[in-house]
Amino acid sequence: MENDLQAIVTQAEAILKTVKSRAEWEQAKATILGPNGSLTQAAKGIGRLSKEDRPAFGQALNQAKKKVEGFFKTSLELIENQADIHSLGEKTDPSLPPVPHHLGGTHPLTNVRRKVVSIFRKIGFTVAEATEVETEWFCFDALNTPEDHPARDAQDTLFFPADSKWSNIAQKNKEHHVLRTHTSSVQIRTLFKEKPPLRVIAPGRCFRRDTVDATHSANFHQTEGLYVDKNVTIKDLKAVLDYFLKELFGDQLETRLRPSFFPFTEPSFEVDLKAPNLGKLSNKWIEIMGCGMVDPEVLKLVNLNPDEWSGFAFGLGIERVAMILHGIDDIRHFYQNDQRFLSQFSNAT
Ligand code: PHE
Q1: Does ligand 1 come within 6 angstroms of the Cβ of 292?
Q2: Is any ligand 1 atom within 6 A of the Cβ of residue 263?
Q3: What pTM was computed for the model?
Q4: What residues have CB less than 8 Å from 81, skipping those under 6 apart?
Q5: What is the CATH number of domain 108-133+196-345?
Q6: Would you place residue 210 in the very low, low, confident or very high pLDDT band (cuts 50, 70, 90)?
Q7: Does residue 265 line the site of ligand 1, with CB under 6 A?
Q8: How far is ligand 1, taken at its centre, from the CA of residue 62, in Å?
């Protein structure tokens, strides 16, 4: 009978050499150590032995069991190690050079906005912000643009339903909420919050019900500028804009102010520029932005005395600047997220 035990130990060792998975291991364990396993069955043979033979058999049985269990333990460790190694995937060589990976870049509109902000920072302007959802009053009425004013028709506005709630956007009366059509509303929000003298620029997103084509988009970006102090004149306006545009487009730039109309500035101008370094647009007068002296009506509305305070304001399209700077001929490129377009600007400033 002790020979039988030896045979079982040998059998266990042989089976375990062929076992490759946890399932096969379980199967092998059942064959030897399970209730019907060979070792369990052999152990039952003790009942048939005489009293004298039993202790020796018992001892041999224990030894055999220990050995077999030891084999199973080692085998299981091996299987589990193999599984771990497998789950770690292919061996890697840490001495290899890294796989090149694609670094993201900032959007060309972000680049232009940052550049504009940094140019104005140098001359003491700070950044003012307001929400993209506005009220009709801040977007139009406060800017001297009453409901029946022709300028209000020109701006095709996106209105929110009368019952929409915007608890964080203060209304003057019970007027509608709109998506702001320009950043000029930030002028009013700022003038209510801060006392002059003040110098702010307000970059942000605007919305109009324009049909999208190469030069129009229902959403676009502007930067507003506002300067209010004592004795501010058109000379100051021209000097600040000349400085700004030269920083942006280069020293060889010329500018001119052309009379125009905005309800909230008086007088109002369009700014044109001409420069030799603008590709196809070189040496031609190009309209770049609107500006003017803050209308006394606007100052009165925010409780400033127009005899004491004066100022200028301007509004600039960020897309327009980016298009002129980089020779881009279609505004839609900015919003299509095409890597072939965007990657060209990842190092631009
Ligand atoms: N808000 C005007 C526009 O969107 C631009 C502007 C801003 C003009 C400030 C004058 C002063 O066209």
Answers
A1: yes
A2: no
A3: 0.72
A4: none
A5: 3.30.930.10
A6: confident
A7: yes
A8: 96
